[in-house]
């Protein structure tokens, strides 16, 4: 049985008025600053530590008057680390 023909597709090239310049491409691919992953990891550790202290102290520490808002602080720190990590390249 004969083999069917393979069609060749043309390579897409975007129009020149839409194509990004080399300067903007270089600006986008800059590496992340050193403080970014350090801040993200420290926020994760802080959030987990806050929650662990809250549960192990039977809701007396870190701040007794906040009550269940201590959970919001712990989880908020971890969510903030996700926001910081979304900027990592």
Automatic annotation (TrEMBL):
GO terms for biological process: cell division. It is found in: Cell membrane. InterPro entries: CrgA. It is a multi-pass membrane protein. HAMAP family: CrgA. Involved in cell division. This is Cell division protein CrgA. It comes from Micromonospora rosaria.
